[in-house]
Amino acid sequence: MSGLRFDGKVVVITGAGNGLGKEYALYYGKKGAKVVVNDLGGSMKGTGASSSAADKVVDEIKAAGGIAVANYDSVEFGEKIIETAIKTFGKIDILINNAGILRDVSFEKMKDEDWDLIYKVHLKGTYACTKAAWPYMREQKYGRIINTSSASGVYGVFGQTNYSSAKLATHGFTLALSKEGQKRNIFVNSICPVAASRLTETIMSKEILQSLKPEYIVPLVAWLSHEDCKETGSIFELGAGYISKLRWQRNQGYFFDTPFTPEDVKSKWDEVSGFGNNVYYPLTSTEIFEIFFNKEEFLKQQKDDKTKQINPSQN
Ligand code: NAI
């Protein structure tokens, strides 16, 4: 099998001065792409700025024979980052929204600044870079966008109400945008990486970090951003060489005879909140209407399922 190539493609990677973004940038640089290495060069808490992080990565790409340019703007000003791609290379094909910071603190002690800064970098930054790239991708009927979500957003992590909510929001953004981009060959996906970087080095042991090399995140990002890949609107959890896809699951639920009361909900709480064998994997917001407006069919199934539970031999 011949290797994946990105010749002629223009890739913008935000936060590419360190960690995962740096690995992506070095990879694309080796595979023929023209790379915009964006990095504000601040601390992991979002303070300060420096051009050296992006410059070092650009130098490394060039030293290996690749093509790259640096950009030092904060992702909040996405139009400036995309402008660097357009002015230098004339187009934008792939956007990796990767820049990130942490402001971990319990909700009780969280300051507005901790909340706002996380939202500015993760959600506003993802929006601003994508918004600026979107007209070019629409016009050329081609684009690949990867947004960086997190297991923290999917499951929630203590001390990260700001980060968890912003990270799950980036996947909501992916879901809606993938629907808008599909007809124009613009595919949008989210990843939840787990990897050794300055964001994780203080919370995990050395042994664990050893097996979580940031380069193990590159293959999925490369494939999702390749022209042969048609995946869109999906979210993947990955790290240590393992990759898996996540999806929503709806339980069977319970259809009440209307009108109904809070006491009825209490009495059927196991059916409403429990997960048994009959589960659904909805993909659109309108699928639930098939249940709302097919009550008779649903009730029949609900009754059949109950009979099955009473007479397990019928299963
Ligand atoms: P990192 O700290 O090594 O790299 C992030 C880079 O983003 C830094 O170089 C930083 O200067 C840059 N950056 C921060 N704010 C910026 C801004 N406003 N504009 C431009 N650049 C900015 O962190 P890492 O681990 O490589 O993180 C990459 C992404 O992956 C982040 O979005 C992070 O939230 C996410 N992530 C990482 C996980 C991990 O296990 N490392 C887990 C889940 C998500």
Automatic annotation (TrEMBL):
Domain annotation Ketoreductase: ranges: 9-197
Pathway: Lipid metabolism; fatty acid beta-oxidation
UniProt GO MF annotations: oxidoreductase activity
One GO location term (cellular component): peroxisome
Gene Ontology biological process: fatty acid metabolic process
Primary location class: other
Localization annotation: Peroxisome
Domain of life: Eukaryota
Keyword field: Fatty acid metabolism, Lipid metabolism, Oxidoreductase, Peroxisome
UniProt family annotation: Belongs to the short-chain dehydrogenases/reductases (SDR) family.
Protein name per UniProt: Ketoreductase domain-containing protein
Organism: Paramecium sonneborni
Full-protein positions shown: 1 to 315 of 449
